[in-house]
Amino acid sequence: MFMKILVSKEELSKVDEKILLLAVLGMLRALEGNCITINEAEKFLLSPGMADILKEQKCNEKIVHIIEKGCELEDVDSLIPEKLGEVVKELIDDTLNILNGYKEFDKSRWFELEYE
Questions:
Q1: Dihedrals φ, ψ of 2, to 5°?
Q2: Which of 7-11, 40-44, 106-110: highest mean pLDDT?
Q3: DSSP tag of 110
Q4: CA separation (Å) from 38 to 47, 60, 106, 108, 110?
Q5: Residue 26 pLDDT
Q6: In this structure, how many other beta carbons lie within 10 angstroms of the beta carbon of residue 63?
Q7: pTM, entire model
Q8: In the chain, what is the greatest distance between 2 CA atoms, to the nearest angstrom?
Q9: Which pLDDT tens digit goes with each residue over 70-116?
Q10: How far is CA 4 from CA 17, 105, 112, in A?
Q11: Contact 64, 50 (CB under 8 A)
Q12: Where are the beta strands (DSSP E) in 26-104?
């Protein structure tokens, strides 16, 4: 059985940055808890390519900055590994601060599920 997630473009345009922030937060928490590697985080979201796409889409500059700073985690880990946890924590705090500035989502949901 496969599950499709259908997203209304209208609804997504209203919440896409908040959804992105929630994804970034979850990924950073997973990284902090050693559930994923920096390499995996780079494949999911923390890449220069993702930052470029977000810039093209006129995404909040603060979110782009988090993505760009996240691209440096591998360097931090290889050069000053004792600082990695601190840098990840800073990214989490920055993400929470930005997320706190968004309005509460007032719809029942932003997607529909369809099973095949």
A1: -115, 150
A2: 40-44
A3: S
A4: 11, 23, 34, 34, 30
A5: 97
A6: 20
A7: 0.79
A8: 48
A9: 999 999 999 999 999 999 999 999 999 999 998 887 666 656 666 66
A10: 21, 22, 8
A11: no
A12: none
